[in-house]
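Justification of computing resources. Each target in the renewal requires a structure prediction run like the one illustrated here; the chain below, 154 residues long, is used simply to show the kind of job we budget for.
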Amino acid sequence: MSDSNVKDLIRAEIVNLINETKNSLKDVKKFAIGEVWKILQLLIATVIQLIENLGEELSGPEKKKLALELIGSFYDSIFTHVDLSWIPSILEPIIHNHVKSFLMMLVGAGIDSMVTTFRQIGVFKSKEVNAQSNDDHKVIVDFLNDLKQIVRVG
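Resulting structure tokens:
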């Protein structure tokens, strides 16, 4: 499979994750900054695992660039209102992009450290071809289940 086909397949998985997340959090109107960061950390692990499972032939820099793109897309789709308790509500929309930029810097560093950790603890083991699609679905289901522990809906 070509690199662009692999990337499109991974993007489709993340679009599915975004849609399932929107459905799961449909009653949540705003997110506390702490919730956003916890979700992003969970998302980093999920995206890394999906890219490792589906994009073995991609180079390290390609994987990181794709991960940042996908996490940025998730952020834009899910976190339309991030509540910063120390900032007056009227100013929050003005600094929203700065908050995202700061968090995405942390995401970049988080990707690097999580990949290193996953390698050291053996998360990136050789995969069996027939179990791969089940592993990909399990990664998304695990993300959605963990998400419900971070954001209390209802």
